[in-house]
Each structure stands twice: as C-alpha cells, then as structure tokens.
Amino acid sequence: MRHLLLSLLMLLAAPAFAQDLASVLDANRDQIERPSRQTIAPVIEALAAAGPQAGAVLEAWADRRLGLAGDRFVIVRGDEALDAVTGAPVPGEVRVLRPNSGVRGVIGAALVQFQLNDPEPSRRAAALDAIARRPDATHLAALRAAAADPDPALAARKARLERLLTIRFDPDPRARIAAIEGFSGDTGADLQAVLNPLLATTRIAAPAIPEGANVAAELVPGEDIPEDEAYRLLVDAGLAPARLAPDAQKQALAAHVAEGAVGGVPVSELSDPARRDAAYDALADAGLVPPAATAAEAEAALASHRFADIYAEPDPGITDAARRALKAMALREGVQQAADLTLDALSLASIYFLAAIGLAITFGVMGVINMAHGEFIMMGAYTGYVVQTLIADRTLSLVVALPAAFAVTFLAGVVLYRLVIRHLVKRPLETLLATFGISIALQQIAKNIFGTQARPLTAPAWLEGSVGFGEIVSISTIRVAIFVLALLFLCLFLWIMKRTRLGLEVRAVTQNPGMAASMGINPDRIAMLTFGLGSGIAGIAGVAIGLFAKVTSELGSDYIVQSFMTVVVGGVGNIWGTLAGAALIGFLQKGIEVMNPANTLAAQTWMILLIIIFIQFRPRGIMPTRGRAAEA
Amino acid sequence: MLIRKHPSAMVFLALLAIFTIAVTLMSEAYGSGLVPTSTVKTLGKTLCLALAAVAMDLVWGYAGILSLGHMAFFALGGYMIGMWLMYARTGEIVAATLANAPIPPTPDELRQGITGQIFGVVGSADLPLTWSFAGSLPAQLVLVLAVPGLLAFLFGWLAFRSRVNGVYLSILTQAMTLALSLWLFQNDNGFRGNNGLSGLQNIPGLTDVPQSVISIWFLWASALLLAGGYLLATWLTAGKFGSVIRAIRDDETRVRFLGYPVEGYKLTVFTISAMICAAAGALYYPQAGIINPAELAPIASVYLAVWVAIGGRGRLYGAVIGAVVVSLLSSWFTGGRAPDLDLGFYRVAWVNWWQVLLGLGFVAVTLFAPRGLSSLVDALAGLRPPRRMGTDLGPDVGALREKEAEA
C-alpha cells in the first residue's frame, strides 16, 4: 500500500521535478555510492529539496533498496527494479547500495519531513510516533518546517511534540523555558519523560566546585551523605588513597604470618582490632605492605574537598523551570492519587460492609458472635462456583448464583440456630466457641469436598475491565459492582427493618425479648429468622468476594477478623454503625497502606493496633445502643 | 496446708511424677527404649501445652475472661528463648569456621558472621535492635517472662480500664494475636519473617549430647514446670484472691460495688497467666525445634480455649486433661496412625476428617457436657452439683452456669 501510494505520487509529480532529481543524483553519484556520515549531509539536503519523489529514493536508500543498474539509480521492489527517476522497469544486474547505520540515521531525519507532509494521515501519524519514540535534534527542524496538518488531532499532536522537542533540543534557553512554562497544568507521562532528564545530576568530589557548574545541592559529608560514601567519591576521583578495608587488612596480615606472629604481634592477639592495626603498622614500617590512610588523613581529605550534585544541564534557568513544572505536576498527581485512593478505600469498605452486615445483625439481636460466619461466606463462594460449573453462561450463572447462595447459607444458618445456638441462650462465650467448632468442621469439610487448590469463580465479561477517570484514577468494574451491591443491601436491610412486620418484630426482640414475647411475638422464631437472614447475606457476600478473590476453604477466615473489627468498631445492633465501622476500617487500611506502600502486612498490623486504641475511647463502638434498649 | 485443702493437687502431682518416671524408664536414653525419642518429645511438648491450658483456665475458667490470644504469649516466650538458642548455636558454628582462618576473628567479625548466618535469608546484614541481648542466656530468660508479661499488662490495662468485656474482649484479644503475628511475618522486623527461628532443638554447649538424652531432660523440665505452674495456680485460686476472681467471673458489677478493685484483680490474673504461658512456650519450642509467626495465628489460641472447654473449665486438672487428651488424639489422628474407617460407600481417612470430628465433638461437649471430661472425675468421686433450682451463678457472660458449677 505504502509503496503503491509512493509510486503513484512519483508518477503524478514526475514531470515537474524529474530533471532536477536526476541531475542531483548524477552530480553526487560518488557520494551516494560510498557515503560517509561526515560528508553526506549536503547531498541528502539537496536530494530532499529535489521534489516529492526524492522521498521514495531516500526511503529506498535508507531501507537498502536503492541500487545501481549500470549507471542508472534503481529502486528494488520485490523481484523487479524500477528507475529511481522515471519509475520505469529496468532490466539487468542490480548492485544494491548498503549505507552504514550512521548515514541511514541522517537519511531518516531527512525523510521525516516527507512523511510529515504525506497526504495519507496514517503515515503522518506514524511519522509522529516515530519521532516521539526516538526524538533527536534534527526532528525539531523538520517539525517546524512541516506544513500545518489538516487533521486537527494530528495538528495538536504535532504542536505538542514540537514543544516537547523544543524543551530538549532548542539552542535558545529562553525558548526552552517558555516551552516548559507553556506546559503548565499538564501531567502527561511524555512531558515527565522530557523534564526528568533535565534534572539528572551527577555527584562530584573536587577541591572546589567547578566554575559555572549548575549546582543542584552542595553536600556536607556526615550530614547529606555518609562519610564513607564521600570518601569513596574522593577515591574514585583519584583525590585520596583508598582506606584499608578490614578484609584487606586481614588478608595482608594473613599473608605475612611468620613463626606465629605478624609484625611482632602474636597471632593469638590478633582478635583485638587495636593489635591488628599495630601489626599492620609494623608491616608497613618494614615496607612489606603499602601504608594505609589513617582516620585523621581521611578526615582531612574530606574537610579539604567539596561535594556536590551537579546538573548535567548547564543553564540554571532551565533546571529551575523544570523543577517548578515537576513540582506542580506532583501536586496535581497527588490530588488525583487521593481520588483514586478514596475509590479504593470505598470499595474495600463495601466489601467489609457486605462481610460484616450479617454478623452485625446476629450480634445485635442475640448478642452472639457467630465464628462460623466466615465459613458461611466461603459456602456462598463455593455455591457460586458449583452453579458456574452447571451453567455455562457467566451472566446467567451469576444471576442464579446470588439467590442460590442466599438460599444455601440461609438454610445452613437456620439449621445451625436450631441445633446449636438455641440451646446456648445467654451464654455468648460458649456460643462463640461452639460456632468456632462448627467453623473448623465446615472448613475441613469444604477442603475434603473441593480440595485445597483454589477454585475459579469467573466474573462475566461485562464485569471485567475497569472504569477510569483521567490517567491515574481507575477502578475495576467488579469493585464498582460490589459497591452497588453493598448499597443495595443497605437499602434492602433498611426496608426490612423499617417497613416490614419482620423488621418490627426484630426490633422489638432486640430491645426487650421478654416484653416482645408477651406481645405475642415468638422471640425464638425471630432469632432464627434473623440468624438465617444474616447467614444468607454472608452467602451473597461470598459470591461477591469470590468474583475477585480465589475461592478456597480459607476464604472466610481471611475476612472474618476484619468483619469482627467492623462490628466492634461500628457498635452493635445498628446498621449505620456497621456502615461507619466498615468505612473507618476500609479508609484506615488504605490510608496506612499509602504511608507504607510496599507492606500491606504492616498496614494490617497498624490498623488492628489503632482499632484496639480506638476501643479505649469508644468501648461500645461508633454508634452504641442508647436508652432503655442498651444493656448494662 | 494447700495440699490438705486441695487433695486433687496431690493426686495430680503424684500422677505427673509416675508418668515422668515411667517415660524415663521406657526411654531410649535411660531405659528400655520402648518409647522412641520422637514420642518423648511429643509428650514433653504436651506437658507444656497442658501448662498453657492451666494458664488459660486461670483467666477463663476462674476469672471469666475468654482470651482468644493466649498463644501469642506462649509463642512470644518461645521467640525469646529461640533468639538465644539460635544466636548462641550460630555463634558456635561461626566460631568453629573462623577458627580455621590464619588470623583469629575479632568480636565484631564474629558478630558479623552470626548476623549474616541468621539474617541472610531475609536479606539483612545488621543485627536488629531487638536482638541486643540475644547473646546472653540470663537476659533472654528474663525477657521470656518480661516481654509477654509487659504485653499482657499493657493490653489488659487498656482493655479492662475501658471496661471492655465479654465477646468484645475476646475479639480484641484475637485481634491482638493477629496483629502480632502479622508484625512478626514482616521480614524487616528482625524476627526472620515467615522463616521464623529454626534449629532450636540444638542446644548450645550440648552438641555432643544425643537428642534422645536431651529430649528426656526437656521432659523432666516440662514436668517440673507444669508441677510448679499447677501449684502456683492452685495457690492463687485457693485463697482470697481466688474467691475474688471467681466472684468477678460470676458477677463483676456486684464485686465492684463491694469495693474490690476489679480491674486490678483482672489485670493481675491476666498478666500472671500470660507469664505462665510464656514459660510454657519457652520450654515447648526447643522441643519443637522451630517457631514461626503461624504459631500466633488466632486459630491456635482458639484451640487452647477448646482444650480447656473439653477438659472442663473452672478446674485446673480439667484444663490439663483437656490439653493432654485433645492434643495427643490430634497428633494420633493427623499423624496418619489412626486406621481408616470403612463405611462401605465411603472410606473415612482420619487425616482429612479429624478436624470435622474435633469441631463437631467440641460442639457436642459444649451442648451436652459443659463440665467436659472432668465430669467423668465427678462421676467417679460421686460429686453432685448443688440444686440451685435453675438459677445461675451469676449474670455475667463469663459466669459459670448451673450445669458446670461444681460442689
């Protein structure tokens, strides 16, 4: 396609410039045949000025497809050879020219302006890409010389590229500073890539700071740089002799052991560093080893030299402008990262909320902590996995899995209540331990059924990918979906509690079971239903968590402590408290992770510590139960 | 005096002595060799676990504080002794290596060598500050009690002061052990991350003594420590202090209104129990040979509570029985020595199903035998609980219920 277009172009333009190109080629035949990097530039300029089809010649030359058939220049294309000037097929033997890479670089630079003026937009875009990928000083001229681009998007890109290249290559410092300042408000990675090298420094040690050097910072040994490192700089610069490393000293001593002593010091005494120094000094006095720089000499050398970071860029105005620009950029990036982080924290909080809400319900109504809650989450996730193996369509299987998980864990919760928890009324600690027994049994049963390896629970395609705003802020769609799910459950829960008969009865039993019972409410039945509801929500949370985490038998225990924390921090028996607790823990965890990004373990440690301290001040959580409903 | 008041302590000590002598006489080192060294180690470790269970019973069964983080103290004790064991042992090896060099090493070089050996796996070359005393056995022995004691004191002070109790307190203690284990898991905190401390079975200075002999020595030490811990716990619970903490368990508010400093009592018993746990851990891990942060996982502490509950809380021998029976059964089942059960349609491999059995068995014990295995002892002794006509001992969440109250 490219070549066809080029040939077409060549044919169209042939009459006007043909003579010119031919004469240029003829005039510089020797140079073109055996080009050299130093002298070829004028020839290429002349060729470039010789009209549009010269572009084809230059391109062929750079691609090692330009050849000589007799005394005519030909362009080799596949099996045939075409005359470079007329485009007519040329028979006979062709000797292909092979310019070296230096020359091809020069040709390439000249080609750029042809490509920038190419009528085909895709070729112009390709030329811009090529410049952006490997810019050099010649491109700047080419960019400036190129005609205005008719495509507005390409024109904008070209203008931006021209400004970027101005920063790097323009000989006039004022133009460069103006270009840097012209970019204010921009956070593009390409701009950073241009600005950062401007601030590159080298660390030097010298008797005095060189005249006219653009100093980034002068360094004081012992304060800005460790003394060892400063001395190493001196040694590297040849300004001071190397100090004797302990290992080298040891080797030197070992090499001169004679009759159980070194330099008059018995070997057995050499476990003392002071005696080692004495032995070495004795050897040095005897001329057996080179004398080592003493500590005092090293100190004097450090004091008599100066150390500095020097910018490679000599002009302080430019480095200042670049630093200012980068600083402003960092600020804007910080704001965007904060936004990104807030989203992350929100999604984490909604996961904790989903995981903890069931726990909070049962804790609120019965004062019972269900240690098997994590295993209900796991059960929900495995239900999702089983449904997915039965139904191939991902979306449909998800739609089926959510209610299925609810049903399975609801049933499990009701069975657990009927068989165990009912018999342990008013014994919360025993309930806690008994449900723990259930939890280890369930975990092991899951291991026995599904094995220890992780099972995949794949999200449908429309949940993959991510929603993004700007370059930095982005959040995966699954997390958005979980956020929506959490909101949905908040609303559902509020509706059940405030608008239904069940909710009314649950609230009555929470406040005063005895009174509720005398009003004709069966507290046992209500407790069972609440327990089932809490477990069912855990099952749904399990499906949601399983979508982004691997489904294993330990899935639940990964979230259970955080869920407990959420409930404890939030306060008992209040959905808003749970919400606040989840938000606090989610934001806290993300916040600490930011301060110590490499270490999520540390984040969790600190979070738990902070929560323990938090409990000091609000022992009953953020939103404690108040009034007559509160227990003593 | 103490013994006369509590004959069960006498019986317990006698049984412990008989057991220890019997194992010694059947050991490879001092007897017929009927009991292999690995079993001796398991028995020694079990005695340490029993002591931890006694400590747990002290806080839960007597003071009503269900701590789900007691294994943190146990493991901390192990870490403290493990630091000395590892440092001193590595020191011996490094010194032996460097002794072959033409120039004798300086103390600094020796320390460098040890540090490199110990911390090479986590990519660190400096000895962490926490290891400052690792070279000295007396200092580390003090730390075995001091560090967990201090942690328990601080945690208890914070928690009891703000009147956190019941389920909240359990969750908080669980969070504490989780936080500690996560902290220890980090490579840069100077405890070798998830590698933990290893090679603890090699006792410095005793390289020539075979493991069969060392294991018996450790069995004796464990038995002695268990006897001491048991007596201490008996003494604590026998006197007025014991009465007060039991009263706190059954009705905290009433004890407070009677003028007792409830927080002080709870803090004391919590700290003492943590220190007993730590001492048990310090003897346990040299026999186990390795310690890593997984030992502090919340689940380990819950198991401790399970042992006490199965054995029978609120009585010291119950805790010992629970710990011994459950942990020995556990190692028998998970060790693959239990024969598979063939149901015809399904073959029950106990390695896979033991956890299920334990979990369900535990639920059954909680439901049907709140006094646990020690109800067997009651049946033998002909003890009957008093008829309280359905009223419980106290309204607090940790209070003993009628079914599990003893005479």
UniProtKB/TrEMBL annotation, chain A:
The keyword Transmembrane helix applies. One of its GO terms (cellular component) is plasma membrane. InterPro entries: ABC_transp_permease (IPR001851), ABC_UrtB_bac (IPR017779), BCAA_transport_permease (IPR052157). CDD domains: TM_PBP1_LivH_like. Its main location: membrane. It is a multi-pass membrane protein. GO terms for molecular function: transmembrane transporter activity. One of its GO terms (biological process) is amino acid transport. Belongs to the binding-protein-dependent transport system permease family. LivHM subfamily. PANTHER family: ABC TRANSPORTER PERMEASE PROTEIN, BRANCHED-CHAIN AMINO ACID TRANSPORT SYSTEM PERMEASE PROTEIN LIVH. This is Urea ABC transporter permease subunit UrtB. It comes from Paracoccus salipaludis.
Automatic annotation (TrEMBL), chain B:
It is found in: Cell membrane. It is a multi-pass membrane protein. It comes from the Bacteria. Its main location: membrane. The keyword Flavoprotein does not apply. GO terms for molecular function: branched-chain amino acid transmembrane transporter activity. It holds the Pfam family BPD_transp_2. Keywords: Cell membrane, Membrane, Transmembrane, Transmembrane helix. GO terms for cellular component: plasma membrane. The chain crosses the membrane at residues 43-63, 70-87, 137-160, 167-185, 214-236, 264-284, 290-309, 316-333, 353-370. This is Urea ABC transporter permease subunit UrtC. It comes from Paracoccus salipaludis. The lineage of its organism: Bacteria, Pseudomonadati, Pseudomonadota, Alphaproteobacteria, Rhodobacterales. The gene is urtC.
